[in-house]
């Protein structure tokens, strides 16, 4: 009786919150999370790779354990986590998210891979033998709770391991599966389609593997990567899953779930699973459930953001923020326009009103953010994450500069190089610790609404925004470029207001900003920094300079040819800046109050550019600026070279190479045709592959081929070595390398390139598919804005890249599911190639 009354009250409270949230401001809505999950920072742990607290459980004697092999168990366990709670807590972490601890399929002979990661269940209600016992799990929960920390369990409801398949329409059982040929828990053990009684129970969807991820029907009801798809519409399955997972809440005291592969299960399932009297939420107060829906939105597009948010209407009270992760990667790591991030942050303002977003920069299923970049870039991304609303998650090993996605923290595990990595003195550990401390003392980082003031439409550079909540307003300045920037713009503060820098995440500026007449501020920001400013109570006296300056250029003017710009000033010296780059500074001494300079559009990329003039009078105090004036460069696209390539030559230099045997491989690596065009100093490289496939949902629109493209400017000295491809030229050298896959892209200069290492990353070119062509846009800024491409050569090669392992697919004598055959490991990793020569 009392309980149902309480429930009614809860119901009324929820209705009120829903009603109010339509009229409440953003920060009012977010402030409701106060004291709850929005105040927390999590740490994600892959149990097998974190710490080994009990070596006796490592080897279960079925050939499934081998720390030298990344596909097998390494020995980490639940007790190992207990031993390292102080290390985790020391970072300022409030809770951990662990990969599934449940009993798994240890080895799948069909794919030659192990279930050490926990996502291939054998029994949802039992702790895996490698990770310990139920008592160990309870001990972990207790140890965490004693330190006021939370425990989030990763759960899977879409599938178990891979115990059956349909091949060419024929049903097969995975009889060689280790340790058992089928799940051991009822009713999931009823997986034999050939047994009429089991077939009729319909515990599974009796369907083939997904081969098209854009088919909504396949996504829900087919087998994802061969993993046996549960019939999540069957009430018996729903009940068994609810019972299995309720067990961990009741028995162990788990505080929340992260739900794997949520978008492969129909949404109505989660209504039943979480809500209602028998639902998971009824078991524990303040329970959190966040879903994994790995979707990415294109720049300036929010359909995936909205799709993720739609799960708030189906049981989830929080969701993983995949679109923010992708955007941070594109902008901070990839050097793409900060305006992309500006758009995403403003989209999030709306979504955060509906539910909590769980934020991250990488996880166990993707290349680590820090892979291949200098630590200050990772720090910038983390600084951003830790000053934005949402619940941040730090993936284990980030604090120790890990680059390998699933490397081990403990010396006995795979990828550890025989060392323990629990170093509380590492700079990154302390960086994260300080950043979390800053977050906890500044409510605007947790409940602040983002208001973007300035962003960069051309590429990397400045992003300026405020974060405002009831208690405070912060002013954030980010520079994602590798060079210092200057900007002059209007803000919404009274003249004389001072903005004090209160935190520098990666060595920013310590100079306060004073708002000048008419609300203008000028920023000079070092490369790769993030600085937080706060409005100071004190007002500064303003000096009124008598300097004047103006130029004869209309805002928005089109420029199609060399153009001289004239100006008038009473200053001693004027300084011209293009596109907010301090390094572009051009100093001019005016004569008789006049000056002029030239704009050369051929040295600029097409599109919008900015020019800013600083004029200095008798002394520095007498400094004034023009407004930032925009002009638009318009140039025609010209074909520089085009070449047709033979069919069937995707066989390597030896003529013997064979594609991997997995069914998703077609003839993607056979290049049919290629061309290169220029628009001013920007190059557009187009490649036509024989087959364009999208078997694994690649955001760039193609998979199972990666292009390594080498560009030579004959006036520069580069290198003849092709990194990681077992090949070197002795009579030709390249200056830039483009790496392009369906998931990622990079441009490297030859500087620092060796046979084992890419050169220096300059950015991330835009890559997309159009009418069967893979197109790559190489900005002129990266190539030093050459006035002509005459005499340049481009060498195009194809191979395939494994994004999870972050390496080129290996070459061996025998082809395997994901291994290229017909060669030796030391032969060149080049399937097909061609040359583009520019006259
Ligand atoms: Ca162990
Ligand atoms: Ca499914
Ligand atoms: Ca299967
Ligand atoms: Ca070819």
Please tell me about this protein's structure.
The protein is of the alpha+beta class. The radius of gyration is 29 Å and the shape is globular. Helix 9 (235-251) crosses helix 10, helix 12 packs antiparallel against helix 13 and helix 12 runs antiparallel to helix 14. 46% of the residues are buried. The protein has 16 helices and 46 strands. Residues 1-5 and 18-22 have low confidence and may be disordered. The protein has an 8-stranded parallel β-barrel with strand order 1-2-7-10-11-12-13-14. Strands 15-16-17-22-19-20 form a 6-stranded antiparallel sheet. Strands 24, 26, 27, 29, 30 and 31 form a 6-stranded mixed sheet that branches. One calcium ion is lined by residues 158, 220, 229, 264-265.
Explain briefly what this protein structure is.
The protein has 16 helices and 46 strands. It is α+β, with helices and mostly antiparallel strands.
Question: What percent of residues are in strands?
Answer: 25-35%
Bound molecules: calcium ion
Low-confidence stretches: 1-5, 18-22
Q: How would you characterize the largest beta sheet?
A: 8 strands, parallel, barrel
